[in-house]
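Please, structure for the following, as tokens.
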Amino acid sequence: MKKIIITLVLLFLIPGSFVLGSDNLAQRLAGKILLQVESHGEAWYVNPADYRRYYLGRPKDAFAVMRDFGLGVKHNELAIYLKNNFPERLSGKIMIDAETNGEAYYVYPDDLKGYYLGRPRDAWNIMRKLSLGIANKNLNRIGVGFLNIKTNPNQNNNQNQNNKTNSTLYAAAQAIRDGNTAKTLTYFTPELRKAIEYTMNFLDSEGRLTLGNILSGSKLIKSTANEKIYADKIYFGMGGYDVEVKFHVKKQKDGIWLIINL
């Protein structure tokens, strides 16, 4: 119960830290890279598809954004755009050459030119170079988005075992986002269900979306035959630092994997 209360405080009692704010501001800044000038220079990408900001803290984060949000385009069409300019409808988007080696380009909204992202480090440097400084009070008006983990379809038996726990997290996350309390309860141990039910009733739709995204965005950090531990780092806007949250998924006597904490 204590961890649930802490989670609720972090997510919902700190104004502007996680919840979606002004749609107008997010729409105006769609496709931009924002640099948090009043903190430690953290960079964020405002996704034009959902008007949420995604953290570009490390090269691998920038590469993950490129992978998840990239749009495939034919090589000849891409070549024309690169020679001239990209159309306005592609402003701020990441274009992937679908017919060669998957080269990626960021369409900078200010000039509609394509900037080659290359390797993870190149992508990170380009995105930061083209960033726009923003104050914390404005940044906090834009909701935080979280990338989902994608699994490899060519998995061995050990990976399949991990996917059983992954599916528990992802299914629970989706049930939370859907607001389906009854289904959500089936992914947690009986001892937690009363607290989970209280949490689901307490949260509004934005709160459930945020909590679900945190859950599905967590990564495996420790694994045994009967328990898996996943963790996610959530950026804490009021103070400029990351808070690590952990989720434990444990194999029950009947072989079902359930979440034992929140």
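The radius of gyration is 20 Å. The chain has ten helices and twelve strands.
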